[in-house]
Design goal:
It holds the Pfam family LysE. The chain is mostly helical. Helices cover about 80% and strands about 0% of the residues. It is built from ten helices and no strands.
């Protein structure tokens, strides 16, 4: 692959990864309470991208094209999970807003959502899993991978060369996600004081994404 093509690919990838989606919203949501949790969620989301990258390189995109029912199943499952995340975030935010007012001096003193301990510490494994499942809940990623590889990668390059390009994109994604996680620290005081609103807003975004993906899945079921 020519250097100019790689740079163009990285530019397209940056725009896609940095745009608001389940991954970015989840990272920001956790970052409202714990930068460390947000970073581990970012690592989890990146792991999800690794799964989709490997699946795409292994031919999942072509398999989905040949058997659309696979995408339908992924869309229904992913949309359903996003709606569950929306319910959890919104209900948690509403409960927090209804709770007695407390003075928030650190990120540990704020009321915590599901997955956090009472003292505000989230287990690294929990944060990682939340990021991972958030990314895997969006099956359209694999279609995006297929489009990216089809337009920028020469099949004649071979699996090894394509894997190298995929690795570059994964590293770029990790830098973007971790960057988002660290940026939340700059406004952590404000976000901690408004963590309930962050939860509710995140839930609304999750709900919209979930409805869109689930609707596409249902439409696919009806078309079978």
């Amino acid at each position: 692959m020519a250097l100019s093509a790689l740079v163009a690919l990285m530019g397209v990838w940056f725009a896609a990864m940095a745009s608001p989606g389940p991954d970015v919203v989840q990272i920001i949501r956790l970052g409202a309470r714990s930068t460390r949790a947000a970073v581990w969620a970012a690592i989890g989301s990146t792991t999800g991208l690794v799964v989709w990258t490997v699946a795409s390189l292994a031919g999942l995109t072509a398999l989905i094209s040949a058997h659309p029912v696979i995408l339908v199943a992924l869309q229904v499952a992913g949309g359903g999970y996003l709606l569950w995340m929306a319910f959890s975030a919104i209900s948690g935010g509403i409960k927090e807003r209804r709770a007695p007012a407390t003075v928030v001096s650190t990120e540990k003193s704020a009321p915590q959502p599901r997955g956090f301990t009472p003292d505000g510490i989230i287990k690294l494994g929990t944060a990682y899993r939340m990021g991972l499942v958030s990314d895997l809940s969006n099956p359209k990623v694999v279609i995006f991978f297929g489009a990216i590889f089809a337009n920028f990668i020469d099949p004649g390059m071979g699996f090894g060369a394509n894997a190298v390009v995929g690795s570059v994109l994964i590293v770029e994604s990790l830098m973007i996600f971790v960057g988002v996680a660290l940026c939340t620290r700059a406004v952590s005081k404000w976000m901690s004081k408004n963590s309930a609103n962050v939860d509710i807003f995140s839930g609304v975004v999750f709900a919209l994404l979930g409805v869109i993906i689930l609707a596409e899945g249902i439409r696919g079921v009806l078309a079978l």
